[in-house]
Amino acid sequence: MKQVKAYGATSATSLIQPMTIERRDPRADDVVIAIDYCGVCHSDIHTVRSEWGPASYPCVPGHEIVGRVTQVGKKVKKFKIGDFAGVGCFVDSCGKCKSCKANEEQFCEVKTVFTYNSQELDGKTPTFGGYATSITTKEKYVLKIKKGLPLDRVAPLLCAGITTYSPLRRYGVKKGQRVGVVGLGGLGHMAVKLAKAMGAEVTVFSTSLDKEKDAKKLGAKNFVYSKKPENFAAWTKKLDLMINTVSVDHDLAPFLACLKIDATLVLVGAPPTPNQVSAFALIGGRKKLTGSLIGGIKETQEMLDFCARKKVFSDIELISASQINEAYERTIKGQVKYRFVVDAKTI
Ligand code: NAP
Ligand code: ZN
Ligand code: ZN
């Protein structure tokens, strides 16, 4: 066991504060990663504050991790010391079930071991996330990061990137299609960049009027201020796909109305309380309402390679660990531009 410096919470109401956690001795198939950067996802806030149900404490969040490999177990093949590496939202799964075999480990039928607030496959050892100076984890669940990329801007791809890439690919976004993105935060700004990189015409629906200029800079063609109902009229039955990233419950009807017949609204935002949806919003136009959870390791690697090729990285505000609490408050207010990333040197 190794003692590692970290930042985490001791209860649902405590601040994120310095603490020490234990990382295991590397097993034959483990790599040890010295963390350089870790993104701040809204899921960190939902989890650490027990908004999705009671969390286990101490809780060290962080699942947008990038760093350098400092040690490799003797069976490790994918990595050598000095390689850049990434860890996303999960660190293990059974490896044998239908979902694991289909490279969708996030839906493992036995157990997906999430990067934090989870237990290892033994059912008891707690997992701790990336607000820490290092992580020891199975190489199979670690992503390769190409040399020469802006590592701090790559970190958010490990969750915000894959969570938006996966449904854009699944629903076959291609050149000329019209994609709507609801909510311009961490996930939303990646959805804009990725949909644009896939050739789509992007429309942002935002509750923040002051984000219009940014939305266009990020690659959106159109901006709809969603607090004014009359602004939706021009978008009736216009969109091929919508990705909804909003972190609080809201009425889905105005967004469903923007979909073409048979088109799909994908929920990736995970509000702790239910959204409203009227049957009428779906039946008139055979609209589809679905959800999506991050993506498997194979698809995450594909996304990282796509982003490296297309030079798609997150727009970030780099913060020190002592600023995490302040960053949470700004994220909740929708004031993040567009992802906070913790510099692990400051932990
Ligand atoms: P974020 O950076 O806080 O972005 C959420 C955006 O939602 C805000 O920027 C804001 O955009 C909009 N919003 C916030 N409060 C609102 C309100 N009261 N009414 C309407 N819109 C509001 O969060 P994130 O990190 O992108 O995460 C978004 C959600 O996705 C969270 O619930 C998170 O847990 C979830 N998530 C899901 C997955 C998955 O696999 N499905 C993965 C990661 C995260 P505007 O200012 O533009 O309105
Ligand atoms: Zn996340
Ligand atoms: Zn499995």
Q: In a nutshell, what does this entry contain?
A:
This protein has 347 residues and is α/β, with parallel strands linked by helices.
How would you describe this structure to a colleague?
The protein has 347 residues and is an alpha/beta fold. It has 2 domains: 2-159 and 315-346, Medium-chain alcohol dehydrogenases, catalytic domain (Quinone Oxidoreductase, Chain A, domain 1, Alpha-Beta Complex); 161-291, 3-Layer(aba) Sandwich (Rossmann fold), CATH 3.40.50. Helices cover 22% and strands 27% of the residues. Strands 3, 4, 5, 8, 9, 16 and 17 form a 7-stranded mixed β-sheet that branches. Helix 4 packs across helix 5. It starts with a strand and ends with a strand. 49% of the residues are buried. The mean pLDDT is 98. Bound molecules: NADP nicotinamide-adenine-dinucleotide phosphate and zinc ion (2 copies). Residues 41, 43, 63, 89, 159 line the site of one zinc ion.
Which overall shape is indicated by the principal axes computed on the Cα atoms?
Answer: globular
How many separate domains make up the residues?
2
- How far from one another are the termini? 19 Å
Mean pLDDT equals 98
